[in-house]
Amino acid sequence: MELPDVQCCVESLTCMQLTILMVPFLHRVKRNSHSLDYFFTGVAPGINCAEFAVVGHVDRLQGGYFDSNSGKVILTGEWLKDNKDEEHWNKITKISQFYQEDFNVIIPAVMKLFSQTGGIHTWQWTIGCELHGNGTKRGYSRYGYDGEDWLTLDLSTSTWTAANAKAVITKQEENTAKAKGHKNFLENDCIEWLQKYVEFGRSTLERKVPPEVSLFQKDSSSPVVCHATGFFPKAVMISWQKNGEDLHENVTLRETLPNQDGTFQKRSVLTVSPEELDKHHYTCIIQHSSLEKEVVLKVSRRRGGVWMGIIVGAVVTVLLVIICVGVFVWMKKQQQSGQRW
Question: A biological process (GO) annotation for this entry (predicted)?
Answer without folding.
Answer: immune response
